[in-house]
Amino acid sequence: MSRLSRNAFLALILVQAGHSIEEYFGRLYDVFAPARFVTGLLASDHRIGFAIFNISLVAFGLWCYFGPVRHARQSALALVWFWVVLELFNGAAHITWAMSVGAYRPGLATAPVLMAIALILAWDLRHVQAASRAAV
User: Fold this and answer.
1) Which of 47, 54, 48 is nearest to 27 (CA)?
2) Digit-coded pLDDT (tens) for 53-69
3) Exposed (0-12), middle (13-18) or buried (19+): which is 135, by Cβ within 10 Å?
4) Is the dihedral of CA 127, 132, 133, 134 positive or negative?
5) pLDDT at position 136
6) In the predicted model, is pLDDT for residue 130 greater than 90?
7) What's the pLDDT at 128?
8) For residues 53 and 41, what is the distance between their CA atoms, to the nearest angstrom?
9) For the chain, what is the mean pLDDT?
10) With contact defined as beta carbons under 8 Å apart, do 80 and 61 qualify?
């Protein structure tokens, strides 16, 4: 994995942390039924459930970075691709949702940043993978 990929991955996780904060203060758990359902599984107070879920998500991302990604473990590539797909879907869902109602929805401000970093990361991963295949 290239230095750009490692740095972009860390940036993706840090932006996800900011995205989660935006969603929390925008009370996503009150206005988006799937978020309300998931947070309700974790705690009766949706704010706490939302915090538990998102802290766990960001902690998992940081574990991925400081463990497999930073140490170039075999699982790193699969984990990074998982995050690329997750954040592309997440960003696209926020943008689509806001466009469908014609108004801001919690998470919209950071969604394009998540998508941009995920696309840069995907491009670099594909570029590095193609180069390594050509070298064999």
Assistant:
1) 47
2) 999 999 999 999 999 99
3) exposed
4) positive
5) 61
6) no
7) 78
8) 10
9) 96
10) no
110 exposure class (CB count in 10 Å sphere: 0-12, 13-18, 19+): buried
What distance in Å separates the CA atoms of residue 36 and residue 52, rounded to the nearest whole number? 13
Q: Which domain holds residue 86?
A: 3-135
16: number of Cβ within 10 Å: 24
Residue 22: HSE in the Cβ half-sphere, 13 Å Cα cutoff: 17
Q: Kindly state the average pLDDT of the residues 5-33.
A: 98
Global model pTM greater than 0.85: yes
User: What's the number of domains the chain is made of?
Assistant: 1
Q: Would you call 103 exposed, middle or buried from its count of C-beta atoms within 10 A (0-12, 13-18, 19+)?
A: exposed
Q: Which residue has the tokens 């009766």?
A: 44
